[in-house]
Amino acid sequence: MSNWLQQSIVDTGRLPLFCYFVALIVAFVATRINVRLIRAKVGWFRNVSVGEMHIHHVVFGVVLMLIGGVAGFVLSAGSQIGYAAAASVFGVGSALVLDEFALILHLHDVYWEEEGRTSVDAVFIAVAVTALLLIGLRPLTWDYGPLVNPAALIVGNLLLAVVTLLKGKIWTGLVGLFVPVLLLVGALRLARPGSPWAHWFFIGRSPRKLAKALRREERWRRPVIKAKIAFQEFVSGRHDLPSTRRHT
């Protein structure tokens, strides 16, 4: 293990990214354990409040991200150890911010509501992208030889990524930035029924494609979503409170 860490992480200059990755995961898990204990009113676990004002942990996350980010700028020309320490602080702050991403998105406390699952999705995406960077992949850097202009390749991949995302294929679009063949597959395949692409081109224009997309969603996508939600609830707790966003 120590040899792998030295050869694959330290010697390749990826120690700061590795520390960020570990800090992000550990801080997210620790935060979710803490909030679940608070929700269950176990022992001394309570929300942080000043008077009647609840201080959300996204506030602490922003502060830690500022500290880690500024420290990273200061230490970037110094030792890798100091840079790694700054990256760890930034990772903890990122976990706290992303864990309440849904609150920022909706400007409303939807933490335990269905909309709150967006926060868990945001953390999973951050972890996945960081893992891809950690193993050495870089977005939009694939070389197809002298016959392909690099600028045209980047623009083409970005356009495919936009189409893929508009078709509602979030994971395919993000991972495809690192593995471009996935962008081609995502851009060519049928859009998901609730996606912007389906709204623009299926509803009222192509009932046949919309019906086909709905059948695919029900047959293939729903079981995957149920499995994902089950895993999310195992990690982060149940988002089972009734939605209050529409009433604000």
Description of the molecule:
The chain is flat. The longest helix is centred in the C-terminal third of the chain and has 30 residues, at 207-236. Helices cover 66% and strands 2% of the residues. The chain has 248 residues and is mainly α. A hairpin with a 2-residue loop joins β1 and β2. The model has no long low-confidence stretch (mean pLDDT 87). The protein has a two-stranded antiparallel sheet. α2 (15-39) runs antiparallel to α6, α3 (57-75) runs antiparallel to α4 and α7 packs across α9 (181-188).
Outline:
The chain has 248 residues and is mainly alpha-helical. The protein has helices at 2-10, 15-39, 57-75, 80-98, 101-106, 117-134, 150-166, 170-176, 181-188, 196-201, 207-236; strands at 49-50, 53-54.
What keywords describe this structure?
11 helices; 248 residues; two-stranded antiparallel sheet; mainly alpha
| Main sheet record | 2 strands, antiparallel
Portion in helices: 55-70%
Radius of gyration: 21 Å
Q: Order of strands across the widest beta sheet?
A: 1-2
* Average pLDDT for all residues: 87
How many H/I helices?
Answer: 11
What low-confidence regions span 5 or more consecutive residues with pLDDT below 50? Answer: none
The fraction of residues in strands falls at under 5%
Instruction: Note the overall shape.
Output: flat
Distance between the termini: 52 Å
- Following the backbone from N to C, one meets helices and strands in this order, namely HHEEHHHHHHHHH
Oligomer: single chain
Please give the number of β-strands.
2
Q: Please identify the structural class as seen in this structure.
A: mainly alpha
